[in-house]
Amino acid sequence: MTQCDCGAPPGPLGTCADYYNTILAEEQLDPEMYRWHAVVVCVYLLQHPARGHEKHLDSQFRWLQFYLDRGIDATIRLQAHQVARNNRRSSAGYDMAPLEPYAPLPSGGPPAHFATSFCELPYGEGGFVLDGHATYGNRLHTLAQATEQAWKSLGPGTPSRG
Asked: In this record, what's one Pfam family (predicted)?
């Protein structure tokens, strides 16, 4: 197998895409694991921006910073707030106000290397939560920190014109 497009060598499950897809499948069966879904998506797309949409990277970077600053419970509350605003009965749309205090996505990316990648997540009997949900959450926190640090190492961002 060749190196992943984020610069990481493949792990036992393959490239980061293989890890990401396996995590998404496991989340469907494990509501406790699903708590970190937004973190997983933001980290994956920020480490592999060609697999997402460029127009969303800034908000994903801000979501990631929000999570690192405020924690998983605040992130889940913000998700619920956004879903309520975006449901069919509401015309309010997406609320960027909670994310505005966070740094915009730096230009010149993506970073060539991340200190931690999906390919380094341990996997075994019990899947990604082989040693508990809290430990899984800690690993995702480390992955989120590595992603934020790599992007911020590129320099300051350009404020979005949202």
From this structure: DUF5946
Across the chain, mean pLDDT equals: 90
Q: What is the DSSP letter of 153?
A: T
Which has more pLDDT, 135 or 156?
Answer: 135
For the chain, the domains span 16-152
Between CA 112 and CA 41 the distance in angstroms is: 19
Judged by DSSP in three states, 11 sits in strand
pLDDT at 94 over 60: yes
* CA 135 to chain centroid: 17
Question: Would residue 156 be called left, alpha or beta, if left means φ above 0 and alpha means ψ between -120 and 50 degrees?
Answer: beta
Between CA 154 and CA 33 the distance in angstroms is 31
For the chain, how many residues are written? 162
Nearest CA-CA partner of 82 in 66, 94, 64: 94
- pLDDT exceeds cutoff 50 at 162: no
CA angle (66 as vertex; 64, 71 as ends), nearest 5: 100
DSSP result, 33-65:
HHTTHHHHHHHHHHHSGGGS-HHHHHHHHHHHH
